[in-house]
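Why do we bother with holo predictions? Because pocket geometry can differ from the apo form. Keep that in mind while you read this record for magnesium ion.
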Amino acid sequence: MPLSEFSLIQRFFTQQAVKNASTCLGIGDDCALLAIPNGYELAITTDTMVENVHFFKDTNPEQLGHKLLAVNLSDLASMGAKPLSVTLAITLPSVNEAWLSAFAKGFLTLAERYSVDLIGGDTTAGALTLTVQALGLVPRGRALTRSAAKVGDFIYLSGNIGDAGLGLKITQGYDCTQPDNALKQFNQPDPACDTGQMLIGVANACIDISDGLASDLGHILQQSHVGACLHWEELPLSDAVLSYIQDTGDWIMPLVAGDDYQLCFTVSPEKASLVPNHCQKIGIIEAQHGLRLNKSGIIQTLEVKGYEHFS
Ligand code: ADP
Ligand code: MG
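The structure, written out:
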């Protein structure tokens, strides 16, 4: 007999001991209760993943659990928020215990790494759909937003881009000699939680790259009413991505492929020395609107859209 809704929740989603000091009441009542310390704001974000839209049917459930949480923690990171807790709404076509167990393992292992409590959720039957709401703390009035970039700011990335895009290409049949890191970045990205918190008081604007650098930096430019020029030669690219480009000529891929979950942020030149060492400067914010790329001394306009649902 399949597990009931309540025993399913009990069995797979209540294994975690409470880790976070803000959790006053976790799973089991009509609401969870959270304490918000003085001097902080609550950062709240939600992301949904739908089978056949955000992930392939038959995706490894442990990796899926990890990625579902990672994409939500990444949104907290991009505002400089420290993650506290999450809720999880799952809609399942049927109860598959092996699938649920692996999914919960991927999800809760990452949660544990950042002392994030799973404090509630909802469980329903239907087409496979996974929704997380993530809650974090950010010092009052100091969150990193998309609208705060200033002309003259340097633009940085928290790490390599294009590896997740390469991972997707490998999944779709591209023959790569060094696939491991690309597949890891695509299937189990690490959210830049620590970097995000280090950028409070350092960065002006910040965003996480879910849809591709050009598209996501585009949101900063639009909301800050500025433009930018990137330097192709400064982009942090792995050897695997460089050899993919050499092999295919598809040099635009790292600029337009999504799923990297690095942070892209802007910093005024006076604060450049405070940027964490692992981050890479890739360009500059300019008054002229639009996004430009300086590639071998030739400046071209980048006209790039990310993935849009309903279009
Ligand atoms: P209600 O009927 O009041 O919405 P539910 O029966 O849906 O309550 O849920 C019972 C408890 O289990 C609640 O605390 C809810 O937050 C939690 N819960 C339900 N589904 C999940 C899930 N997938 N993950 C974590 N907690 C869950
Ligand atoms: Mg419910």
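The longest strand covers residues 40-50.
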